[in-house]
């Protein structure tokens, strides 16, 4: 009963907050915030199953977001005729064939033992040397093609397909990456997963930022088409509302599926592994297998959520992916809302995102007051970049919230309800 | 010959410099990993914080360095190291200790350290902005050119003063750490706690003291690493995650809990990075003159400089696949 009361209070508080934003900042802004919050909610659901269901620590959500956004751009952006009308696609295809051939060669070299090739060390050396040679070969043949694309066509453009295909592909690709990382790290200590995901996120970002022929790099790509009607057709408010209802449908579907999964034997196994790894492995549960599943599944959601977020922003900007906005903000949503509780996660996502967006004008206003007082009282000359510094200070607040929640409310505002199936 | 000197300048010296920095960071990380048993994500920002303390001190007393004949920042470094050590203990008391006493899982400690890193980042950026700054406030960087006594060598080997100071500092730090860990009672207690915390506790080792000493060493070395890196190049406040990954890679390559392993790992990662981004075409050009049929491309670097961060990652992945204990048989905890 106590919990139900608390939930009602929390959710009605959230509703008041959202209404206030809608009224005070105008419907166009308010719906924008809500739509972005709903994209973040998909990301947060992805994290809540990794962290809340399985206790897996993902420090590289940004990488999956970037991957999803990139795939949405690649599939949804209109076709670039400058590129397709030249012989550049053929050249690029040639490089792709070379790469495929090289990968086949490397794969073959790892299977040499079947032919009775002697010596494990020798085979490993052979594979490594071969991979290096193939890598250099593909790289030297890609470089001229890439610079030709950059100079003649800008970048390869998109495929001009419906953008939701990009969302799905983005999710699958994120899952594929997660499979490789998870395969390497999940058998080891949980810290290693954090380090590896942090690394892969930075690498994905570095790749998207510098592969100008593929993504236009820092020049950014916009506008991305929307899955529904765009703002140009039916106006800002209506278009954003349609987008919001689309993401809301996705979230509703996800929550339903997660609810079923959580109460299914699969979910119970997950929680058993999380709470007591030793005894669940003694019960014959495949600990690493289940963990790999949940890690991949969560990453797929992150890919889809990232694609939805970038599509809504309408601009693909590889240098706009920041660990703060795209990793740690989502963490705050999950641990503040309540890890492992879908409702809590949704609450956290909307609440944190609304507060986060509103904190920008509030921080600027506070600093403005500070600057005026400083000038009036102490003849203090404020540094010119004070505004950008004020926004940086929000980093501090995020860190503080993480520390405080971990210490004082480790289960979040709406804790996970552990069902006892007796 | 010139090509060889170029190689020494670009690979040997730069690799040793960046390797020493990684080693200094990784020793701290590996000690924390070994004794407190979590990956300390706030290490990179502790480096930046220490460097800012040095910058503030240098700006306050710019005349000290020229009087002694060393860069002012280097003279101020011991003070800042002490301050960073105190801050590190304070952070531990405020944020890690309560969690440790609640017996939380190690992952939660990692999360807490991420929270700390974000707070440090916010403070640093709020007070110091995000632009890069030079630690040479009132003095200039001394550069030494060593001419080689060869006919064909027209270039000189270039070493800067901060680089020499870095090598000297690293040598002194490693020797004193070695003596401390092997000869002193406290150092032995640290190693005991790293090996088996429960056994250490029941045999009467004061674990709180050991934890404090760990933070002192880690904080001081982090400050030194940040300062010496910034003396060599410039102070970039947003380095954080970019330098964290190589440091973790170095600690894991060397074997968690092994200070000497961290030293070796730092150099492995540092040299791997510089060798991978080095343009081998420079070195092979004489070969091209000798063999006219050979046509080398202009750029023969393995990895473009923008993708430097992939190197520590692949080292990390390789070590996790083939030898998760690291080259020196550390722990997998």
Automatic annotation (TrEMBL), chain A:
Transmembrane segments: 7-23, 29-49, 56-77, 89-110, 122-138, 158-180, 192-208, 241-262, 294-316, 328-355
One protein family per Pfam: BPD_transp_2
UniProt xrefs under InterPro entries: ABC_transp_permease, LivM-like
Claim: Transmembrane helix is one of the keywords in the record: yes
Keywords per UniProt: Cell membrane, Membrane, Transmembrane, Transmembrane helix
GO MF annotations in UniProt: branched-chain amino acid transmembrane transporter activity
UniProt topology in membrane: Multi-pass membrane protein
CDD domains in the cross-refs: TM_PBP1_LivM_like
Localisation: Cell inner membrane
UniProt keyword rRNA processing, yes or no: no
Any single GO CC term annotated in Swiss-Prot or TrEMBL for this entry: plasma membrane
Protein name: Branched-chain amino acid ABC transporter permease
Automatic annotation (TrEMBL), chain B:
Keywords, ordered alphabetically: Amino-acid transport, Cell inner membrane, Cell membrane, Membrane, Transmembrane, Transmembrane helix, Transport
Gene Ontology terms: biological process: D-alanine transmembrane transport; L-alanine transport; L-isoleucine import across plasma membrane
One family name in Pfam for this protein: BPD_transp_2
Subcellular location: Cell inner membrane
Topology of this chain in the membrane: Multi-pass membrane protein
Example GO molecular function: L-phenylalanine transmembrane transporter activity
InterPro entries named among the record's database cross-references: ABC_transp_permease, BCAA_transport_permease
Similarity-based family: Belongs to the binding-protein-dependent transport system permease family. LivHM subfamily.
CDD domains: TM_PBP1_LivH_like (cd06582)
Protein name listed in UniProt: Branched-chain amino acid ABC transporter permease
């Amino acid at each position: 009963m106590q919990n139900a009361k608390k939930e009602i209070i929390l959710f009605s508080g959230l509703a008041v907050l959202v209404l206030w934003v809608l009224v005070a900042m105008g419907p166009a802004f308010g719906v924008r915030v809500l739509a972005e919050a709903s994209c973040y909610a998909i990301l947060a659901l992805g994290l809540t199953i990794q962290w809340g269901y399985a206790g897996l620590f993902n420090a590289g959500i940004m990488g999956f977001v970037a991957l999803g956004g990139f795939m949405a751009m690649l599939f949804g952006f209109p076709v670039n005729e400058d590129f397709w009308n030249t012989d550049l696609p053929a050249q690029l295809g040639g490089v792709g064939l070379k790469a495929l051939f090289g990968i086949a060669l490397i794969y073959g070299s790892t299977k040499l033992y079947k032919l009775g090739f002697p010596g494990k060390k020798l085979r490993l050396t052979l594979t490594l040397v071969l991979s290096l040679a193939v890598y250099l070969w593909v790289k030297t043949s890609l470089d001229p093609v890439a610079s030709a694309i950059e100079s003649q066509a800008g970048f390869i453009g998109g495929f001009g397909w419906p953008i939701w295909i990009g969302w799905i592909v983005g999710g699958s690709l994120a899952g594929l990456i997660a499979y490789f990382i998870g395969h390497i790290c999940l058998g080891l200590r949980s810290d290693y997963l954090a380090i590896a995901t942090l690394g892969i996120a930075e690498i994905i970002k570095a790749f998207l930022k510098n592969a100008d022929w593929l993504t236009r790099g820092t020049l950014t790509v916009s506008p991305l088409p929307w899955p529904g009607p765009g703002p140009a057709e039916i106006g800002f408010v209506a278009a954003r509302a349609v987008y919001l209802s689309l993401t809301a449908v996705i979230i509703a579907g996800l929550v339903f599926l997660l609810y079923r999964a959580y109460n299914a034997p699969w979910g119970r196994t997950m929680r058993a592994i999380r709470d007591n790894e030793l005894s669940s492995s003694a019960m014959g549960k495949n600990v690493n297998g289940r963990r790999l599943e949940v890690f991949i599944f969560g990453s797929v959601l992150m890919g889809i959520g990232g694609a939805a977020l970038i599509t809504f922003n309408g601009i693909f900007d590889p240098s706009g992916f920041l660990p703060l906005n795209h990793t740690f903000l989502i963490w705050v949503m999950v641990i503040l809302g309540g890890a492992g509780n879908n409702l809590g996660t949704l609450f956290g996502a909307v609440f944190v995102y609304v507060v986060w967006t509103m904190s920008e004008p509030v921080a600027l206003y506070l600093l403005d007051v500070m600057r005026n007082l400083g000038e009036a009282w102490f003849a203090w000359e404020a540094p010119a970049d004070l505004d950008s510094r004020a926004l940086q200070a929000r980093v501090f607040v995020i860190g503080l919230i993480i520390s405080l929640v971990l210490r004082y409310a480790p289960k979040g505002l709406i804790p996970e309800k552990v069902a006892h199936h007796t | 010959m010139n090509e060889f000197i170029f190689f020494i300048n670009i690979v040997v010296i730069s690799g040793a410099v960046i390797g020493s920095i990684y080693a200094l960071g990784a020793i701290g990380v590996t000690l924390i990993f070994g004794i407190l048993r979590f990956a300390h994500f706030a290490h990179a920002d502790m480096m930046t914080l220490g460097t800012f303390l040095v910058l503030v001190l240098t700006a306050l007393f710019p005349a000290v360095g020229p009087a002694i004949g060393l860069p002012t920042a280097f003279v101020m470094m011991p003070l800042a190291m002490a301050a960073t050590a105190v801050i590190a203990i304070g952070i531990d008391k405020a944020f890690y200790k309560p969690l440790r006493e609640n017996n939380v899982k190690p992952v939660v400690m990692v999360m807490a350290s991420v929270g700390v890193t974000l707070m440090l980042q916010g403070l640093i950026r709020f007070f110091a902005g995000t632009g890069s700054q030079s630690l040479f406030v009132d003095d200039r960087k001394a550069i030494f050119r060593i001419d080689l006594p060869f006919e064909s060598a027209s270039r000189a080997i270039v070493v800067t003063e901060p680089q020499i100071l870095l090598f000297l500092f690293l040598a002194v730090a490693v020797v004193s750490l070695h003596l401390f860990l092997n000869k002193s009672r406290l150092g032995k207690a640290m190693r005991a706690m790293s090996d088996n915390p429960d056994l250490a506790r029941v045999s009467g080792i004061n674990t709180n003291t050991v934890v404090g000493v760990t933070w002192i060493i880690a904080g001081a070395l982090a400050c030194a690493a940040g300062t010496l890196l910034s003396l060599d190049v410039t102070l970039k406040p947003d380095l954080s995650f970019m330098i964290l990954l190589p440091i973790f890679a170095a600690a894991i390559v060397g074997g968690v809990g092994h200070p000497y392993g961290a030293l070796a790992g730092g150099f492995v990662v540092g040299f791997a990075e510089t060798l991978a981004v080095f343009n081998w075409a420079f070195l092979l050009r004489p070969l091209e003159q000798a063999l006219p049929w050979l046509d080398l491309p202009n750029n023969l670097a393995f990895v473009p400089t923008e993708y430097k961060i992939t190197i520590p990652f692949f080292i990390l992945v390789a070590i996790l696949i083939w030898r998760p204990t690291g080259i020196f048989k550390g722990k997998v905890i």
